[in-house]
């Protein structure tokens, strides 16, 4: 007699594993503190940023954002020189996800403290890029590039793979919400509508190019991440889905493929199945 696995137990175990990967060992305690601590928040419950950042599409958007951000040589130089993404990629992911959770859902005082910590780190991150130009992570121009690449990627992922995609008003609201965090981090005039966001990305394009550090980071993120064998297949789908979100002009500098017919069909379907599976698993942990 074949004994079927307990589907609910499988779902909960998978959800705990995924949540642990992105939130770390302190994830459950942080979640209680972020969501249950009383007090005012930066964003009300009906704001678009809460819908986007709570959705499983963030898994796809986050990876796509890292690839897009790497196209700015000075931003990438700062990551290559000062980040521990190779030695501790999951720790970096967990710190980033905690920052997003605190600023999106947490008490206003905790959100401000999180921003202050990041600004303190940025003040210490400075150096000289391989092309001889100095960089400083607190440079508002570099901060804005990181912000708009992230905002674009999260919003696009949500439109393609989110449970409840936003209408135009909601998309503009999401960009305006993220601008609140960007200003706190030191970006003077971030875009506040979807059209402004697209225009700002176009304005940065002359500065963007592939670098050895950027291609190395892309190879690490897409091909050789530290994952157990059982996770390689699903992660491959995640990687392909994230790459397919990049515009054509962003692929060549990173030596990434561009196959529109496949991306619009097979990869899009696979991405929806994967994100749906992640969503199914994670809802069991709430």
From TrEMBL:
Stretches assigned to the ER-bound oxygenase mpaB/mpaB'/Rubber oxygenase catalytic domain: 50-279
Pfam families to which the protein is assigned, alphabetical: MPAB_Lcp_cat
InterPro entries: MPAB/Lcp_cat_dom
GO molecular function: oxidoreductase activity
Protein name per the record: ER-bound oxygenase mpaB/mpaB'/Rubber oxygenase catalytic domain-containing protein
């Amino acid at each position: 007699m074949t004994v079927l696995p307990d589907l609910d137990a499988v779902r909960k175990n998978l959800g705990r594993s995924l949540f642990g990967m992105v939130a770390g060992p302190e994830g459950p305690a942080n979640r209680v503190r972020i969501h249950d601590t009383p007090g005012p928040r930066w964003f009300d419950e009906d704001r678009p940023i809460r819908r986007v950042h709570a959705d499983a599409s963030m898994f796809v958007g986050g990876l796509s954002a890292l690839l897009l951000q790497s196209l700015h040589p000075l931003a990438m130089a700062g990551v290559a020189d000062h980040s521990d993404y190779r030695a501790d990629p999951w720790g970096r992911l967990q710190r980033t996800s905690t920052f997003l959770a605190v600023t999106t859902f947490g008490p206003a005082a905790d959100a401000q403290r999180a921003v202050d910590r990041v600004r303190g780190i940025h003040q210490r991150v400075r150096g000289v890029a391989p092309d001889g130009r100095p960089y400083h992570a607190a440079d508002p121009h570099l901060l804005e590039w990181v912000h708009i690449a992230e905002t674009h990627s999260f919003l696009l992922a949500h439109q393609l793979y989110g449970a409840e995609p936003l209408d135009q008003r909601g998309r503009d609201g999401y960009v305006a919400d993220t601008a609140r965090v960007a200003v706190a981090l030191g970006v003077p005039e971030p875009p506040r509508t979807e059209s402004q966001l697209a225009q700002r990305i176009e304005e940065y394009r002359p500065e963007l190019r592939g670098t050895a550090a950027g291609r190395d980071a892309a190879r690490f993120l897409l091909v050789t991440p530290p994952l157990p064998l059982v996770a390689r297949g699903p992660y491959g789908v995640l990687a392909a889905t994230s790459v397919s979100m990049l515009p054509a002009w962003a692929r060549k500098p990173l030596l990434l493929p561009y196959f529109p017919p496949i991306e619009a069909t097979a990869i899009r379907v696979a991405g929806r199945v994967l994100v749906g599976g992640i969503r199914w698993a994670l809802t069991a942990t709430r």
